[in-house]
């Protein structure tokens, strides 16, 4: 039984203005109040308490694949897609990875995100059945409409997809992903189809002009920026300063087929090429992302919000953090991963498996470690210590 069954959980002595946060069940119950009788109290001793990070763009089933490209730079994403398809068909090792059981591939995507402090992901593909299950380790945006892209789906299907999406749900599409003529035309094509509206979320947008960004903001729509993927495939990305200042920008990692290892690495890349300050970078993966994705109970620490929380060292901004710096991750009030000292306060020792992550000792929920072993998921840099995965 979890220690949380006895009462709530209260974090105390956090850095910044929100020093005390009480969690009861799956929600934040109070801020700035003393712990109640029976609470588990976690003293973070001046560390930072943040909302769980939101990865606004990933393809969860593709993160077991390596980065792939066969020319540089590509003009349009369609060239890359054709290259990848051709090479996978003729590469036995790659083909085996793409044909592995879907449940295991999706679990690998969850582990990638969890280890980097991500608690919510926008998955840009069908909402596969394992993603709906309560046992899936992270939260996946479930109320959304989507189309892959104009190039893949065609104008008629894109327009139909947008029309069938409730206006209080985000509608997400890859757009202007390239540096050639086709990419530069896509915003105007979407506009002509009536698909640039207040719930529109474009992904990538490399070819967007400032005038088009002004139109995007005027429509109360937004962009998900994946700079490392853009640089890897096209050797450039979009200037996002205006969208960031207007709060109409979120950050996504994309899958590892073109992006960096995880969202923390993406934040570092974003900082290096844009000069956006730490407060703005944090907003891109918390409150701005929640706004674009219509997640009213995520992305902020407030009473009634989901208890998706992240503890980070006080002296390491997100732009310099790596996954070994993550000290504790809670999703829905339940600790999932973290440093042994914090993890042991949040749940009994028997709930945890010891792992080595990039050479550091960490704790991961035992059931997740066991599932990784059963599904033969091999995350680079992660070692399941023998004693960790033995059945309790």
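Q: What amino acid sequence fits the structure above?
A:
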């Amino acid at each position: 039984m979890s220690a949380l069954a006895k009462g709530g959980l209260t974090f105390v002595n956090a850095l910044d203005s929100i020093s005390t946060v009480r969690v009861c069940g799956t929600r934040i119950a109070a801020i700035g109040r003393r712990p109640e009788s029976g609470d588990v109290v976690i003293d973070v001793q001046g560390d930072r308490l943040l909302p769980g990070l939101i990865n606004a763009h990933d393809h969860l089933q593709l993160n077991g694949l390596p980065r792939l490209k066969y020319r540089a730079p590509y003009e349009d994403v369609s060239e890359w897609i054709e290259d990848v398809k051709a090479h996978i068909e003729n590469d036995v090792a790659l083909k085996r990875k793409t044909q592995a059981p879907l449940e295991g591939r999706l679990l690998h995507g969850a582990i990638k995100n969890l280890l980097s402090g991500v608690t919510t992901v926008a998955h840009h593909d069908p909402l596969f059945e394992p993603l709906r299950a309560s046992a899936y380790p992270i939260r996946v945006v479930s109320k959304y409409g989507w189309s892959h892209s104009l190039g893949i789906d065609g104008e008629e299907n894109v327009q139909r997809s947008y029309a069938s999406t409730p206006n209080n749900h985000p509608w997400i599409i890859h757009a202007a992903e390239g540096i050639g003529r086709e990419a530069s035309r896509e915003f105007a094509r979407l506009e002509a189809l009536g698909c640039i509206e207040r719930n529109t979320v474009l992904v990538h947008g490399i070819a967007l002009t400032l005038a088009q960004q002004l139109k995007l903001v005027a429509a109360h729509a937004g962009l998900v920026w994946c700079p490392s993927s853009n640089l890897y495939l096209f050797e450039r990305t979009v200037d996002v300063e205006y969208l960031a200042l207007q709060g109409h920008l979120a950050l996504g990692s994309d899958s590892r087929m073109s992006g960096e290892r995880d969202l923390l690495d993406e934040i570092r890349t974003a900082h290096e090429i844009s000069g956006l300050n730490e407060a703005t970078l944090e907003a891109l993966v918390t409150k701005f992302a929640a706004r674009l994705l219509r997640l009213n109970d995520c992305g902020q620490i407030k009473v009634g919000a989901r208890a998706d929380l992240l503890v980070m060292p006080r002296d390491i901004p997100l732009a310099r953090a790596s996954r070994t710096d993550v000290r504790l991750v809670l999703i829905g009030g339940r600790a999932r991963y973290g440093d042994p000292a914090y993890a042991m306060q949040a749940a009994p020792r028997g709930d945890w498996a010891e792992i080595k992550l990039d050479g550091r000792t960490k704790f991961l929920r035992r059931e997740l470690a066991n599932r990784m072993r059963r599904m033969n998921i091999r995350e680079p840099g992660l070692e399941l210590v023998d004693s960790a995965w033995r059945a309790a």
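Q: And what stands out in the fold?
A: Residues 25 and 241 are 39 Å apart (CA to CA).
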